[in-house]
Amino acid sequence: MRFISIFFIFFVFLSQTVFAEGPMVQNSQNQVAELSQTVKSLQETVKQLQLTVQSQNEVLQQQNIRIAGLEQSKTSPQQTGAVVPVSASTTRGISQGFNPDIGMVGSVVGKLTESKEDQEGNNSIALKELELNVGHVVDPFSRADAVISFNDAIGDQNANIEEAYYTRWGLPLGFTGQIGKFRSKIGKQNLLHSHQLDTVDYPLVIRDFFGEEGLASSGARLSNMIPNPWDQAIEITGEILRGNNGTSFSGISRRPIFNSHVKTYFDLPSDANAEVGWTTLFGDENPDTIYVDDSGNTVVIHHLEGQTRYGVKVYGADLTIHMPLPEGKKLKWQNELYFQNRTNRVHPNDKPWGFYTLLDYRFSEKFSTGVRFDYVQPLDVFGNPRETTSISPYLTFWQSEYADFRLQYSHTGPENSTGKVNNELFLKTNFLIGAHKHPVE
Fold first, then answer.
1. Domain-by-domain residue ranges, the chain?
2. To the nearest 10°, the Cα dihedral for 225, 227, 228, 229?
3. Per-residue pLDDT reduced to its tens digit, 31-81
4. Any coiled-coil ranges, and where (predicted)?
C-alpha cells in the first residue's frame, strides 16, 4: 500500500513537471529557431563581404600589375642596359586583363510553307545563323565590337561580318562617334539582330525596303543629346554609309547613303513610357540606259558609277509604348511606317510605302504572346493589287535568359493578281553562351 502511495505521488509530481515545462520547451525552441535564422543571415552577410573583398583584391591586383608594367617600362633595358625578367604570373595577369568578351548565339529555324518555290529554308530545319560576338574596351576613351555570323545555307554557305566597329565617346560637344560596319539606326527593328526580334522574321517593309535582314553597311556615325529648354531627352544621330547595301539604293559603293535619326521619350500615366522617332535617308538610284540601235535591237547599259544623285528619299516614323502591368506582366506596342519618294526608272513603284504594328504581351516569367500586322507596297510590284499584307501571331517560351523557343504562324497575301496566298508555320530556337552585348535600341 505504501509503495502504491509513493508511486502515485511520484507520478503526480512528474506530470506537473512535464506540463509545466511544455511552454518553456516551446519558448526555447522558438529562441533556437530565431538564433539559427540570425546566424544564417550573418553567414550570408559575411559571404557577401568576402565576395566584395575578393573583387576589390582583384581590382587592386590588376592595378598593381599595370603599375608594375609602367615602372618596368620606365626602367627598360634600352635605358639601363640591364635585362629585367618578367614573371609568368605578371604576364598572365596582364593578358587576362585585356582578354575580350566573347559570346556565341545560335538560331535554328524549322519552317513549313504552302509555297512551291524551292527557296532556302522551305519545309526544312536549318541553322539560320551562328553569331560570334567579340568586344572589349580599348582604353578609357573607346571600345571595339565585332559580330561575325555563319550559316549552313545550301546554296551559299558563308561567313559574314555583320558588324565590326570602333566606338569613341567623349568627343567635343559631347558627341559619340563610331566607324566601321554597323546596323544603321533606322527606326527600331533594323537595329536588331534576328535573335533579338519579338518575331521569327523581320517585318515585310524592312525586308522590301532595306534587305532581307535590314540595312547594315560600313560608314561613320555621330550621335548626341540635344539640349533644350524643356529638359526633354532628345537624341540625334547622323550616318554616312557605303552605298553597296540596301535594296532601295544604287548598290554602288562610291555613292553613299546619308541617314539621320531623331528620337525622344515621354512618360505616360501608370508608369508607362513612349519612344517616338523619325528617320530620313537619302541615296542614289542606278537606272539602266535603254535605247534602240540602228539595227532595231534594244540595248541596255548598266552604269557602274551610279546615276541620279540622291534620287531616293526614304522617310520613316516609329512609335513604341511600354506599359508595366500588375504581377510583373508587361505590354509593348511597337509601330514603324516608311514612305519613299523616287523615280520609277529602277523599280516600277515610284512612291511605295508600308508599315507594321506589333503587340507583345509578357503574361508570365516564362511565356509571352503577340501578333504583328504588315502592310507594304513592294518596290517591284506589277499589276494589281499594289500591296501585300500579312498577319503573324506567335507564342514564345522563355526557358531562361540564355535560351528561348518561338512558335509563329504567318498568313501573307499575294503581291499581285497572279500571286497566291502563302501560309507558313515557324519554330525558332535561340541559344546563347558567353558574353553578349548589343547597343541599346
1. 1-99, 103-434
2. 140
3. 666 777 776 667 667 666 666 666 566 556 556 555 655 554 444 444 434
4. 25-59
Instruction: State the Cα–Cα distance between residues 206 and 195, nearest whole angstrom.
Output: 16
Question: Which amino acid is located at 270 in the chain?
Answer: S
The letter for the amino acid at 203 is P
Choose among 280, 169, 166: nearest CA to 224: 169
Residue type, 173: L
Neighbours of 277 (CB within 10 A): 22
Measured between alpha carbons, how far apart are the two ends of the chain, in Å?
Answer: 95
Q: Kindly give, in sequence order, each residue whose CB lies less than 8 Å from that of residue 362, ignoring residues fewer than 6 positions away.
A: 329, 330, 331, 332, 368
CA 167/CA 151 separation, integer angstroms? 27
Options 3.30.300.30, 3.40.50.1010, 3.40.50.300, 2.40.160.10; CATH for 103-434 is 2.40.160.10
Give the pairing type, strands 176-183 and 216-225: antiparallel
pTM for the complete prediction? Answer: 0.73
Where would I find the H helices in 198-247?
Answer: 204-210
Handedness of CA 84, 87, 93, 95 (dihedral sign): positive
